[in-house]
Amino acid sequence: MIRRLVLAFAAVVSALAPAAAQDREFGGSIELVDPNVLRVCADPSNLPFSNEKEEGFENALAKFLAGKLERTSVSYSFFPQATGFVRMTLGANNCDVIMSYPQGDELVQNTNAYYRTAYALIVPKGGDLDGVDVLEDPRLKGKRIGVVAGTPPGTYLARAGLMGRAKGYQLMVDTRIENSAQAMIADLGKGEIDAAVLWGPMAGYYARESGKDYTVTPLVKEPKGGPAMIFRITMGVRPSDQEWKRRLNTVIRENQDEINEILLSFGIPLLDEANQPIAPKHGG
Fold this sequence. Notes:
Blueprint: H1 2-9, H2 12-25, E1 37-42, E2 45-46, E3 50-51, H3 57-68, E4 73-78, H4 85-88, E5 97-102, E6 109-110, E7 115-124, E8 145-148, H5 153-159, E9 167-169, H6 180-190, E10 195-199, H7 200-209, E11 214-218, E12 230-237, H8 242-254, H9 256-265
């Protein structure tokens, strides 16, 4: 998912550069944020993140934030999270916030991170792989593992000698037609693969939605020297929108526990700064 986001956001540079130049000509920043409506940039078919039926955690979070920001409603600018996403939404001033954006990417301005998660291993609970928490575990030898092509776990699977039997799933797909994460979990349920490795939000959500009993383990113990497996996720805003970023940061800071509960209700494996799982405060 992270790579997909980064690829999708690459086109924003050309869209935002003229706006930044215009701001400098006026001697300051110009914020084009709607004061009454929370205008959200979103994918129309990308659960567990968002969809047009507003069934994703980004939709739930947007509704929650709108109340805290005293906005009268939430509106969406929908566009598939592929090439052109930011240019056609945030960059075109059709919306004011991307709800999930990896920290450290400079193509938009990041708020403070509001959750931290990692790629995760999904295995049947109680099976012979239950308890595996690193891809070099000997118990994975000879097993068939599902992985999305081009994502960081592939590097670690290759290092562990597991790619020969791995089953790959496409990274860039039209989610209105197919869903690699959902297909992977379905294959796990049918026994076509022995384990699955997915981006944390997808791992937790689709494992839960499957109706089967799975263990979802964030992969936080992979050896150093490879690609990042753990990410802080922020909201993305336009570079000119400094006051808007500060307002969002305040809402995140003052409502972190409630935000965590929304994310956890969708099965997302949350991590604290010590890589320990964050549990619900109110059961569940």
